[in-house]
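Annex B. Sample input.
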Amino acid sequence: METTQTQINLNAKAIDYQKKMCNPIVFWFAMLAKLPSAIFWRLRVKTLSTEKCEVTIPYFWRSQNPFKSIYFAAMAGAAELSTGALCQLALAGRGKFSMLVVDFRAEYFKKANEKITFTCNQGLELFELIERMEVNGTGQLMMVSSGKSPSGEEVARFYVTWSFKRKS
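Annex B, continued. Sample output.
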């Protein structure tokens, strides 16, 4: 059975999470408590839906390296957030789960010296996995986040493998 956008109905907790992540003020306070580097690098959640998550990172003095491009760790943080926010959305209101990054790889194609948008388009695949986890309680998914410049040129691609386990 193939999942489509119309078949995914977010529960109240997922809708609440979605609203909070897309509200810049609420996001800022949440990141202050949970992931302060996201504030330092000025990450922003541009889009969070059942299909995709887009996170932006600006090129400015706090995100740059000595070579006048965005520091690789700052880009990794933005990429991981684009996948992790989708995971949190899919898990919201479904009980307690642990989630852990078990593998992380990156490819760099071009110097990132302007605002970069990291996009993970695997929401539907992730929601299908979470549905299957209702039966077996564990799952794993390699998620891809592509970082593109405003002109649409891909500057980096990150592969983040998440492992999920239902807590008892």
